[in-house]
Design goal:
By secondary structure, this protein is an alpha/beta fold. The chain is about 60% helix and about 10% strand. The chain has a 5-stranded parallel sheet.
Amino acid sequence: MRITISGPPGSGKTTACSKLSEKLGLEAVVFGKIFRQLAAEKNLTLGELGAIAEQDPSIDKMIDSRILEIARANEDIILESRLSAYMLSRNGIPAFKIYLDASPDVRMARVGLREGETFEEAHAKTVDRQRSEAKRYMMYYGIDIEDRSVYDLVVNTDELDPDQVLETILEALGVES
């Protein structure tokens, strides 16, 4: 079974992806890691690489073509990225598409904890990153990342711990936890 997990920074995507991968025994590919590695290789912050990507579509196109390549080659896989659900839908590749969300305060607190930043630092960087991504996705693909109509399941993770998020996903998939 092909599964995509999407959502904004701090929504719990990577944690859910890891737990779901372990539970189902499926490989999980986290595309945010690719973007982070690229930024590190170029000695840039995520925000700086995002600003470059606004001028250079090849960065996003490389990552997004990799999503399609991996999805086509694997019927049983979990793909975690902001655009995986849209990319697979547009290319007729079947998948169960999940969107995780949380309120900005919860997300910024999680990002700050993960990155070792204050809430304010996390908020500033995350808002810039989201603005850059939304601009690029609309500019390069005509995708409004606020449009959730492509998803089979939308989960607000504000009040859920990671195990509860996993249970919610497994229930929607029809898999016993």
